[in-house]
Amino acid sequence: MVQEVGLMQMTSSQQEMLILVDKNDEVIGFQEKESCHDGEGLLHRAFSVFLFDQTGKLLLQKRSQHKRLWGDFWSNSCCSHPRPNKETREAAEKRVREELGVDSCLHFLFKFEYRARYDGRGSENELCHVYAGLLVGEPKVNEFEVSDWRMIGPQSLDRELIEKPGAFTPWLQSEWPRLRGSHWGHIEALFALGNG
To answer: For labelling, which of 9, 11, 74, 190 has a CA lying 20 to 30 Å from the CA of 146?
Structure first.
């Protein structure tokens, strides 16, 4: 659901339904987003997107302070949840348009399960599909979802994650080493990235 918030648009709500899955990513039901993030969280399907420009730099977003979990933290280019009966890659490409104002054809890399608790506000408990895409053009961010953004070279992000881990979301901290490891050659080949 898209709600108008001043000149901005909120692209989701706490009442929308998420997809509950088992450890094999098989659908076992549906539950409201708010309930999925209460307490230790219910395992649900999610996606995480990394957009690179042709110099090899990654688009990072700073999550809006309006977010229930990890507001004002730096994270990967885009992340969210597919809705019931929606294909995950299609949902991820749609969310990229909604949050960043750009189109990108996404390529699946891997999926993984993680759980992270955020103070007393709730938890992420996700089976997350990770995608990469090419960033073409200047982002026009939805300011309700994204408070800031920047481009960063891979080596610079490597250093920042070591020096200032508390500035970044836990899923980015889990995903980035895997991208830089077994998936980096694939990413470079897909997008003919430079050494930014």
So the answer is: 190
